[in-house]
Amino acid sequence: MTHAIDVRGLRKRFGTNTVLDGLDLRVEPGEIFALLGPNGAGKTTTINVLTTLVRPDSGTASVAGFDVVRSPGDVRRRIALTGQAAAVDEALTARENLVMFGRLSALRRRSAGARADELLERFRLTAAARRRVATYSGGMRRRLDLALSFVAEPQVLFLDEPTTGLDTRSRRELWGVIESLPKQGTTVFLTTQYLEEADQLADRIAVLFGGRVAALGTADELKARIGGDTVELRAPDGTPVRQISTDGTVRGVRRAIDAFDAEGLEGTVTLTRPTLDDVFLALTEQDADHAPRARHDARLTETEAA
């Protein structure tokens, strides 16, 4: 089976700054794949290469079965990209934006109108279809931006930090929209700095650091890499007193509490589990001693390339 995205040994430099340093990853059709990384890790550069906006220095990358260097036109006809800022015309209504994009995509007027109405319903914008976009909230603009990406039904959708700047309610509404996309046959590749977002949405997650994938797996697999559950005892003032690792079962938790009793300890007991925050910090701190220059250079390059 052809991978939706297949990246092997990808490298990209801007001047003396190395942003991607042998990047390898593969994304399956119908998958929501999240790329995590600190600012300047190379997330946006990766998307720019995969969407044919930036040419790699070496390595290979294919999207929807087509090489991004040898067949950029074929790639572009099968993808859509939603960047960090909503690319909509605020002077037009939502429906007018969608019809315009439909006409630019060679749809006849009637077909463009029908497609616009279909997308307005799909992205929950029908009630505001004839309002000027300038009156929309940030969340509504992002939903419209996504809708515009689907005028031509992409096989692969690239989302570059899609919920940046949104409030909690708008972010969660957009999550619901993104979660529904694979059911329509679309593969989603998203970058994000919100670890909760990756945990919520992604089938698999890659942590990008120093221009390479530092870890790859499901959220549960990544969390398991840094240990299991912990029973923690805290004093009345909240100060940690003692921690005991456990398997998370009732029997395991009870054994930990019995151990606290045997030692004559008192306080409040909580069961803690590793989060993606823990994974992210563990991986980036572990690699920081080995590649501090790579992280610094990547940050500079991302800024220069913006």
Report on the structure:
One of its GO terms (cellular component) is plasma membrane. Belongs to the ABC transporter superfamily. Drug exporter-1 (DrugE1) (TC 3.A.1.105) family. This is ATP-binding cassette domain-containing protein. Residues 5-235 form the ABC transporter domain. Pfam families: ABC_tran (PF00005). With 306 residues, the protein is of the alpha/beta class. Among the domains are: 5-88 and 152-223, P-loop containing nucleotide triphosphate hydrolases (Rossmann fold); 228-273. The protein is built from eleven helices and 13 strands. It has helices at 43-50, 72-76, 94-104, 109-122, 138-149, 168-180, 195-201, 219-224, 250-262, 276-288, 292-305, and strands spanning 5-14, 17-27, 32-36, 58-63, 66-67, 79-82, 156-160, 187-192, 204-209, 212-217, 229-234, 240-246, 268-272. It has a six-stranded mixed sheet with strand order 6-7-8-3-9-10, with helices on both faces. A hairpin with a 5-residue loop joins strand 11 and strand 12. Helix 3 crosses helix 4 and helix 5 (138-149) packs parallel to helix 6 (168-180). The longest helix is centred in the middle third of the chain and has 14 residues, at 109-122. The two termini are 35 Å apart. 40% of the residues are buried. Residues 289-306 have low confidence and may be disordered.
